[in-house]
């Protein structure tokens, strides 16, 4: 990833180096003429270098009878030493900038994480992890990413420059705490290794036993182990992939509709579930006044034991009901505040 700050320092360093080379060339040519072209080029270069570096050796090019030559030497010493100092300072800044920048970014990330509540944590970028991050960003849900591979993080920040992340091992409790697991709403164990996902599940539930845990599982034989370790839901990418391939063959129109809904950059529709607040308990669906939301459609209501599809306006809402709606991220946020 090309970093603007690094590029700026490198550019300064290159310009300073070029200026130093020009000064050395000017000094070399000037001493060659001052010495009436009697001194060798190597002696003229040497005279220029020791003057710029203020080493203090004797005059290789004799200036005892050339006062203008000594004036030039003084000017060369001041200008050359200044440029040389700038070159060294730029080089030092370029050398230590990576470490300083990493420290600055780490502190900034930790500060931003402390402000988060009810956010999501994604452990693992590669594979399904990237698509989880993409979906959470598209639906305006705050999240923190954990991965110990710096290259993967750099690729992620190219796509999502504002993404909050932590470079570290998600199986370590200290890393999960830095990611704000105590205040998080949910965590995804999305690495490509079932054993790592298993440890993440165990660690996460020990720190926060109320957090919702979704884990990936490559081998379906490990699904029960994942659930016993604390995962609320276990997803097999190969199983889901198989269902998707079958759906493409037998119900292509439905699959096309869902794909269009997910990829529409203007509407950005999603199917969401929303709890019913105390304000509407015992009231009909019509009291929600969903018609004022132009991009929201009530699809179903999940009761304690059943599903009510396409509920009527007179259907009475209860405390254990959840609304399943198709809506945009913006209207979802409004619905969360109002219902």
What is the strand and helix layout of this fold?
Layout: H1 4-34, H2 41-52, H3 67-114, E1 120-123, H4 128-138, E2 143-147, H5 150-159, E3 164-167, H6 173-178, E4 186-189, H7 194-207, E5 212-216, H8 223-228, E6 233-235, H9 237-250, H10 252-263, E7 270-275, E8 297-302, E9 307-309, E10 322-327, H11 329-338
Parallel strand pairs: 1-2, 1-4, 2-3, 4-5, 5-6
Antiparallel strand pairs: 7-10, 8-9, 8-10
Helix pairs in contact: 1-2, 1-3, 9-10
Describe this structure in words.
By secondary structure, the chain is of the alpha/beta class. It has three domains: 101 residues, Orthogonal Bundle (Helix Hairpins), CATH 1.10.287; 126 residues, NAD(P)-binding Rossmann-like Domain (Rossmann fold), CATH 3.40.50.720; 88 residues, Alpha-Beta Plaits (2-Layer Sandwich). The chain is 51% helix and 14% strand. It has eleven helices and ten strands. Strand 5, helix 8 and strand 6 form a beta-alpha-beta unit. Helix 1 runs antiparallel to helix 3 and helix 9 crosses helix 10. The relative contact order is 0.07.
Task: List the main descriptive attributes of the protein structure presented here.
339 residues; alpha/beta; elongated; Helix Hairpins; Alpha-Beta Plaits; single chain; 4-stranded antiparallel sheet; 6-stranded parallel sheet
């Amino acid at each position: 990833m090309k970093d603007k700050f690094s590029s700026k320092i490198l550019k300064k360093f290159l310009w300073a180096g070029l200026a130093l080379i020009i000064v050395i060339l000017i000094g070399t040519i000037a001493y060659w003429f001052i010495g009436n072209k009697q001194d060798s080029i190597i002696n003229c270069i040497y005279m220029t270098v020791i003057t710029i570096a203020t080493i203090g050796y004797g005059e290789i090019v004799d200036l005892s009878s050339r006062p203008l030559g000594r004036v030039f030497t003084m000017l060369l010493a001041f200008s050359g030493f200044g440029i040389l100092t700038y070159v060294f300072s730029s080089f030092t800044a370029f050398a230590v900038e990576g470490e300083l920048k990493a420290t600055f970014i780490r502190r900034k990330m930790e500060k931003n994480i402390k402000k988060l509540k009810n956010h999501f944590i994604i452990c693992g970028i590669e594979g399904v992890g990237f698509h989880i991050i993409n979906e959470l960003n598209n639906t305006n849900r705050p999240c923190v990413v954990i991965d110990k591979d710096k290259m993967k993080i750099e690729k992620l920040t190219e796509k999502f420059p504002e993404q909050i992340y932590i470079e570290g091992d998600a199986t370590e409790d200290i890393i999960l705490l830095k990611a704000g697991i105590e205040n998080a709403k949910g965590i995804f164990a999305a690495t490509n290794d079932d054993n790592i996902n298993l440890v993440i599940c165990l660690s996460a539930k020990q720190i926060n036993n109320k957090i919702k845990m979704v884990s990936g599982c490559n081998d379906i034989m490990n699904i029960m182990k994942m659930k016993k370790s604390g995962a609320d839901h276990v997803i097999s990418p190969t199983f889901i992939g198989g269902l998707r391939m079958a759906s493409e063959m037998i119900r292509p129109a439905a699959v096309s509709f869902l794909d269009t809904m997910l990829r529409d950059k203007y509407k950005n529709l999603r199917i969401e579930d929303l709890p019913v607040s105390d304000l509407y308990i015992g009231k009909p669906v019509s009291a929600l006044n969903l018609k004022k939301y132009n991009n929201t459609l009530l699809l179903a209501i999940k009761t304690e034991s059943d599903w009510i599809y396409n509920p009527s306006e007179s259907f009475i809402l209860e405390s254990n009901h959840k609304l399943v709606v198709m809506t945009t991220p913006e209207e979802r946020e409004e619905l969360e505040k109002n219902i």
